[in-house]
Amino acid sequence: MSKIWFLEDVNVFGALCPHKTKRYRERNHFCQYGKQDYIYFEEDAATKVYLIEKGKVKLGYYAEDGKEVVRAILTKGELFGEKAILGEESRSEFAQSLDAQTMVCPVPVGQMQELMRSNRAFSLKVYKFLGMRFKKLERRLDLLLFKDATTRVKEFLDELAEDFGYCCPNTGDTVIKHPYTQKDIASLIGTSRPTLNAIMNDLKAVNFLDFSRNEIRLKVA
């Protein structure tokens, strides 16, 4: 089942987006960003949560040596800036548009908290989502710190399979139709595009997988 606009069985877009809520429709607008535009910077005030209506958004921060560290690349239907719900006053990361036309729906933190206070079931779903997001980021940090490049690729593919994969009934292979470029994937696992490409070709040579631009097929062992 598609995860777009859903926290399990809660329709996030319908519940949160001001354009779907009569009370907020006239006072709120979608925001559009071009490629490489920043939605917010580190240290900006954390006053809103964002839902992606179109495009891709990169979340990351800059290490002390100035190197960019990518935490996540999110696509349509996903939520970001969510730490503001938990009381974060200033951003600990930046958010940057990766597409020429990225559309996001900003939701004021007060509106989100009002919805959560008025609907306990929805509130629990949101907190569960936040827990899953933090666990995913912790797992990725563990990959970056303690795993070699090939292991990072394989474990990231497992993650992609969970999010975007399905079983091909004819072969039993896991087919992953994903929204990421090779540059995106390389950034997420902390390696270079040439290294990623070499590893993918090595895995293809041993019949572990096959791949094209927007599809990866994990072969049955």
From TrEMBL:
HTH crp-type domain sequence ranges: 147-221
Q: Which GO terms describe its cellular component?
A: cytosol
Task: Cite the GO molecular-function annotations of the record.
Answer: DNA binding; DNA-binding transcription factor activity
Task: Specify the superkingdom.
Answer: Bacteria
Q: Which UniProt keywords apply?
A: DNA-binding, Transcription, Transcription regulation
Q: Does the keyword Ubl conjugation apply?
A: no
> Does the entry feature the keyword Phosphoprotein, yes or no?
no
Record-linked Pfam families: cNMP_binding, HTH_Crp_2
Question: Known CDD domains for this protein?
Answer: CAP_ED
Cyclic nucleotide-binding domain segment(s)? 12-92
Q: Which Gene3D superfamilies match?
A: Jelly Rolls
Could you identify this protein by its name? Transcriptional regulator
Identify the species of origin: Dokdonia donghaensis DSW-1
The opening ranks of the lineage are: Bacteria, Pseudomonadati, Bacteroidota, Flavobacteriia, Flavobacteriales
